[in-house]
Structure formats: C-alpha cells, structure tokens
Amino acid sequence: MLAHVAHPAFLVAVAALTVGYVAAQIAYRRFFHPLAKTPGPFLPAVTTLYQSYYNSRYYLEIERLHKKYGPIVRIQPNEIHLSDQQHFETIYHVGSKYTKSPVYYGALCIPNATHTTASNEIHKRKRARLNPMFSRKMVLELEDVVHSKANKVIALTRASIAAKQPVDLHHAFRCVSVDVITEYAFDKSYDLLDSPDLGAHFFRMVRGLGPAMYFFQQFPLMRDVTLKIPPSAAYYMGGAMRQVTTLQMEAVKQLSDVKARMNAGKLGTTRPTIFSELLDPEKQDGWPAPPAHELKDEVYSILAAAADTTGNAMTVACYKVIGNQEIYSALRKELHAAFPGPDAKLNFATLERLPYLTGVVKESLRLSFGVPGRLPRVVPQPGATFNGHFLPAGTIVSMSSWIMQRNEEIFPDAMKFDPTRWLDPVAYRRLDNHMMPFGGGSRVCVGMPLAYAELYITLGTFFHRFGNLKVHETTDEDMVFEDFFSSYQIEGKKWFKAVAAET
Questions:
Q1: Strands 384-386, 389-391: parallel, antiparallel or unpaired by DSSP?
Q2: Closest-CA residue to 489 (of 471, 501, 474)
Q3: What are the residues whose beta carbons fall under 8 Å from the beta carbon of 256, sequence distance 6 or more?
Q4: What pLDDT score was predicted for residue 34?
Q5: Cα torsion 263, 269, 270, 271: sign
Q6: Are 482 and 58 contacting, i.e. CB atoms less than 8 angstroms apart?
C-alpha cells in the first residue's frame, strides 16, 4: 500500500520551522554576532550568497564597500576585509600565527598541496621540501631553459612580422611559464609554444577551473563529493566537476610518467626536477616520501599557478610599453646600452640590475595584480583588533592586491603605468612595502624567484629585439580582469596581439 501523503498541516509546520530558522539565523548574524558592529551592508552580513552573486567581480564590489564604509568592512557573515596597508605585516608576516582559511582555499580542490595547506606547521614541513627547488642557485641553473622559451617567442614574433600578421602575445607569454615549469617539473616540456593554437586548449582548461572556486565555496559539500567521485566518472558530469577532474587526471598522468622514467633510468637531465626530487625517498630529510594523492595535488597546483600569473604580467607590460612611445624608447635605450649588438644574449644577473627595466617589471606586477581578490586568513587566539574593532579568534580577515596596489596615497595616478616611480632607491623601498602580487610572509609564492627570472629574461629580450611594434585592436576594456584566484582577462574579449608599426 502506498504511504499516505503528508498532511497539509505537517507541511505547513515544516515550512514555518524552516522560515523561523532562517529568520533566526539572519537576526543573529546581523544583530548578535560578534561582528555585528563591524561596518558593512546588510546582505553580506547575513549570507554568503552575496559573494556568489558577484562571483569573479566580488573584488570590485569589495572596493566599492570600502569607499562607502571605510577601511574595515564585513564582506561575509564571518569575514572582514581591510584596506589599511599597516595591517598587512600584522597578518602576513614571516612566522604569522594567522592560518589560511580552509573554506576559501579548500574550494580550490587541492587539499594536499603546499599552497592550500591551512595549518602553518604542516605548511612549514611541506614548504621545506620545495624551497631548495626554487632557490636563487636553482633559478640560475634554469636560466638557459628560460632563454630557450623566450627565444621561441622572438622567433614567433619575427615570423608574424614577416607574414604581416598580428602575433598572439596573450597566449605566447603564458606559454613561456608553462613550458619552463613543465620542463623543470617533469623533464618533459609541454612545448605549448610549438603548438598551432599556442596552448589555447590548455589555458581554456585551466581557466575553466575558475567558476568552480566560487561554486565550491558556496557549496563545500559538493566539493567533498567531487573529490570522492572516481575521475573517470566525474569527467562526464560536466561543469566544475569536469574541469577539476581533467586537471587532476593530467596531474596523475605526469606523476606516473616521471616515476616510470625514474625506475627505468631514463630521466634525460643531470639537473634535478621537481617531481624526481619529491618522488625520491632518499631526499626527504627523514620524512616519509609524500603519498601519490598529495603529489597529485602539488602537480595540479604548480600547473594552475604557471598558467596565468607570470604570463599575465608580461601581457600587461607589453601592452603598456608598446602603447607608450616614451616608455618604449627609454626601455630600449637602457637595454641596448647594457647589451650592444642586435642578437646579444641578455643574462639575468645584469637584467635585474637595470633600473628602468626593473620599473617596467614592477609596474607589470602591480597592475596585473597576481591575485586581485583577497587572501583570507583565520584570526588566532586570543583575537585581534583592527581599526578599533575586535575580531574574535576564528574570524576570517583578508586584504587584497587590487586595493593595496592602487592606493592613490602611495601610487599617485595609480592606474598609470609609470616605471619612473621605481627609479629612486628610497621610493622603491617604500613602494615595494605596498606590493603583494606574490602574497607575503611565510606563505609568499614559492615560485617567485623563477617568475622574476621569466619576467626579466622574456621582457628584456623581447624589447631588446623589437622596437617597432604597436598594439593590434586590443583596448583597455579588453584588459579588465576577472578574479578566479589569479587574474584572468574576460573570455570573449580581444586577446592582446601586436603588429609591426608602419614606417
């Protein structure tokens, strides 16, 4: 016999209880929560749906809220955002007790990667394995690898000029980072610079991860479900699950390949690679070798990080430099004074000492923002006070490069690309204290030294070789960013391309 249909009175009671519970939650969060007196509008104080509504543009809404409510704003029921630079050192310094927000970083779906590890103690142990691989010494050993990729960009640009066609620098610059890191990580470069679409297929896959970040923050249970579904099944479910699974499968494939070549003695280089080192049980300083599922997340993290941040900075640099003849001429003058001859090899040690090129690099990092949105941290015991507001332990507190690096008091005419603001050594130190394109403190991006080498070598070589380029069709509107943890230019806009200027 079929079960009786629920009595209408019962359904009404359930609905009333549900409405009552929601109303009680709203009332508590708005009027009785420890953060109730923190400035900010009603909706973000009571629901995380406010963030989900703005999604990849939430960093812009947070800036608007600061303009209206001041230097401290409640942006989620349990999260506060700060705009005063003075707080950066408090939260992000080396040895900080503030841990990463597990909800925010957990949404990246790589719980075992060094980058997303919430615990500072566990992070310290994991990071110790990676630090030697991105040391100054190792970066200098990789200089020829970076040069080889930069030279491919030069050859590609020359071929496009000869054919009187625009060169797709948006993808070419991103290929440099991916091709360098895959050669170093796996002893097998992806060679995206040699692919007909300049790796556009790969970058679409990585960019597709972006919406998953906001989806899984709003629905963390779905993240846990996704991570438990066999990759072969999740792949066919589409959407965020498919994108996450695709990169996970790529990570597993690369790890298996490195391990097989290690076992067969067929790694093709005498220089250590990232994952041959991490897979070698004799090189763990007494710690057990990381398990496969942990290393899979590390591969995922490294590939995603390489896909856009450094390439994005190169794109901003090139767009701004060739769009301003005064900057273009000054930069080429400095480069040719340091490296006479049309085909001189530009060594990294000399390049990073060139003041005007350094100004270009710094401005490209400042205005590409790295991670434009917030870097959330958990307030430790016994709590902390910011701008006169006490935040109890467990509160999430965050700051962002979008706001810090556009502070008009520190960077006058902040959206202007101006390398000269970095030329005075005293001003340089002051400005650099307001930069966070790689994060800060103990959690600063481990790949930062290699990123600087890629920026100096690729941009230095590119501008040394080409003095007569102009922007092809791309406008400032095409260079607007979305926040999918890293900065991404909006899909459907015109990717940055350059052509030879008419003479």
A1: antiparallel
A2: 474
A3: none
A4: 95
A5: negative
A6: no
pLDDT of res. 2: 44
- List the CATH number of the domain containing 466: 1.10.630.10
Q: Which residues contact 279 (CB under 8 A, 6 or more apart)?
A: 255, 258, 259, 262, 289, 295
CA dist 41 to 65, 72, 239, 386, Å? 8, 12, 32, 19
Residue 75's nearest CA partner among 46, 102, 104 is 46
In the three-class reduction of DSSP (H, G, I as helix; E, B as strand; rest coil), residue 320 is classed as helix
218 within a domain of the structure (yes/no): yes
In SS3 terms, 176-214 reads as: HHHHHHHHHHHCCCCCHHHCCCCCHHHHHHHHCCHHHHH
Looking at residue 1, what is its pLDDT?
Answer: 42
CB–CB of 497/474 below 8 Å?
yes
Could you read off the pLDDT of 138-192 as tens digits, one per residue?
A: 999 999 999 999 999 999 999 999 999 999 999 999 999 999 999 998 888 999 9
Residues 211 and 55 sit within 8 Å (Cβ to Cβ): yes
Considering the domain boundaries, does residue 5 fall inside one?
A: no
Domain count, the chain: 1
Element housing 470 (H / E): strand 469-471
Q: Is residue 417 part of a domain?
A: yes
Q: Is the dihedral of CA 63, 64, 69, 74 positive or negative?
A: negative
Q: Do 322 and 472 meet the contact criterion of CB atoms below 8 Å apart?
A: no
Range of the domain at 476: 120-500
Q: Which residues contact 344 (CB under 8 A, 6 or more apart)?
A: 464
Could you tell me whether strands 72-76 and 497-500 are parallel, antiparallel, or unpaired per DSSP bridges? unpaired
Smallest Cα–Cα separation from 154: which of 453, 459, 462? Answer: 462
C-alpha–C-alpha distance, residues 43 and 32, integer Å:
15
**Is residue 91 included in any domain, yes or no?**
no
Residues whose CB falls within 8 Å of the CB of residue 454, separated by 6 or more in sequence, listed in order: 146, 176, 177, 180, 310, 314
Backbone φ, ψ for residue 405 (5° rounding): -85, 5
Q: Which residues of the chain have pLDDT under 70?
A: 1-6, 231-232, 234-241, 268-269, 283-288, 503
What percent of the chain clears pLDDT 70, i.e. is strictly above it?
A: 95
